[in-house]
Design goal:
Layout (H helix, E strand, L loop, with lengths): L4 H15 L4 H23 L4 H5 L5 H8 L1 H9 L5 H16 L20 E3 L14 E4 L8 E4 L1 E3 L9 H14 L2 E3 L7 H6 L2 E6 L15 H8 L4 E7 L10 E3 L6 H7 L7 E3 L9 H14 L5 E5 L4 H14 L5 E5 L10 H6 L4 H14 L7 E5 L5 H9 L4 E4 L1 H6 L22 H4 L4 H25 L13 E4 L5 E3 H4 L7 H4 L7 H7 L13
Parallel strand pairs: 4-13, 5-6, 6-7, 7-10, 10-11, 11-12, 12-13
Antiparallel strand pairs: 1-14, 2-3, 8-9, 14-15
Helix pairs in contact: 1-2, 6-18, 7-18, 11-12, 12-14, 15-18
Length: 533
Amino acid sequence: MSRYTPFALSVIGLALILALPIEGFWFWAGLVFFAGLVLIGILDMVQIKHAVLRNYPVLGHIRYFFEMIRPEIRQYLIESDDEEVPFSREARAIVYQRAKNVEDKRPFGTKMKVYAGGYQWLTHSIRPKKITDYDFRITIGGPDCKQPYQASIYNISAMSFGALSANAILALNKGARIGGFAHDTGEGGISRYHKEGQGDLIWEIGTGYFGCRNAEGGFDTEKFRETAALDQVKMIEIKLSQGAKPGQGGVLPAAKISPEIAEARGVPLGVDCVSPASHSAFDTPLKMMEFIKTLRDLSGGKPIGFKLCIGHRREFMCIVRAMLETGITPDFIVIDGKEGGTGAAPLEFANHMGMPLVEGLTFAHNTLRGAGLRDRIRIGASGKLIHAFDIAKALALGADWANSARGFMFSVGCIQAQACHTNHCPTGVATQDPLRQRAIDVPDKAKRVANFHRNTLKALGDMTGAAGLDHPIQFLPHHLMMRENDRDMVTGEDVYPYMPEGFLLREDDERYGYLKRWRRSSSASFSPFDGGV
């Protein structure tokens, strides 16, 4: 059924009431009923607060009727066996409250089972500190970086134009500008909507080299230099893999490539756009370090890093060995957990490929500590980091900052309809349909993006002060507590300890299998059978 059908039927009903020879009570009852529906439909289409109502006039009110009985529905979901559904509903509720500047209080008790494996919490101090400045920032840029970036510790994770609508990209980027934080472009290139928003950008370069691509699909030096020189581009991120579909490339069919998408990606119209599964600019860890140096030189010394979902742990150690042998280090590494979402991931990939964020983050952090490189390289974390507690936990386990895609999508109106791949997104967030994306009022949603960021960092600051700390970066594993069952309580330090600095170089700590993989790694090749140890 068309989303406009109820409104159209209301118009037809009103016309019939006026045209047919009906008198008395039924005339007035019909007139009030159908005129009321028509008026509601018109108001739905012109209002800017609710994207669902703009796209589904009259019909969309059914959703809000069910929201009136939401407490009963939520309780049912929380008590069900499906952990993902109540998590998503709870996360959306928090984001919507913070985006709309609504007080996010929960009377009458704690939701105890929030995370898989049991309840988790942060320890607090008997002498808390008062934090008044919630604009928490870190400097990203190693010793070879000439243009370090003062980044917020909470930024928008990678989502491409093409996957998201023009209005969604514009609202996100304008929100980032208002709030003074960064917006990762995703691998789809820098679109006109990113530029129009004027917010800080992290330019992600994937295997398709969109925005710096030659006619054969390889890396183009001059195109990269031109785009990297944009003042909006604050950091450049090489995408090795993403959590939702690690090890997979992709194809954007020619039929889905609009002139705007072709412009952003630097690809021709009428031809399928292929993103290979791996990079053509390098094929060994040593060449990868050379590529990082090339990008740094071409960009004028801007921060250069890479993003990956941890797979074969030895391969990450191969990259670290190449850093040691060449003396070239990235300015940052983003660890993407498999928890991330995309409309393009096969179901079994989304569920069973790639390492979850906590394990991947801990491994990368400890490997860099073991190689004596952790102080040169910042680590970002992404993968369902929506609550302030999520950010604090990631920082405690080794991250320097956090990225979120899901949280910021909720802030522009996503209701997680899971129709991203159909082009029929009901709120206009994940669609290229110009009528559907019209539902997003950019100025209003940009404010909500900034509100969500600000209020989440305020919540994080309040938790930081309660723990007796001055800055969230001071969270350590011992601040994290976990109840594994009804009796046993452990600290994050017990489960996710920081390994000693330089232990891989000294080869003096056999715990957790790090040394076994380190000895099998090689800077010359990612393969254990081709130059590996």
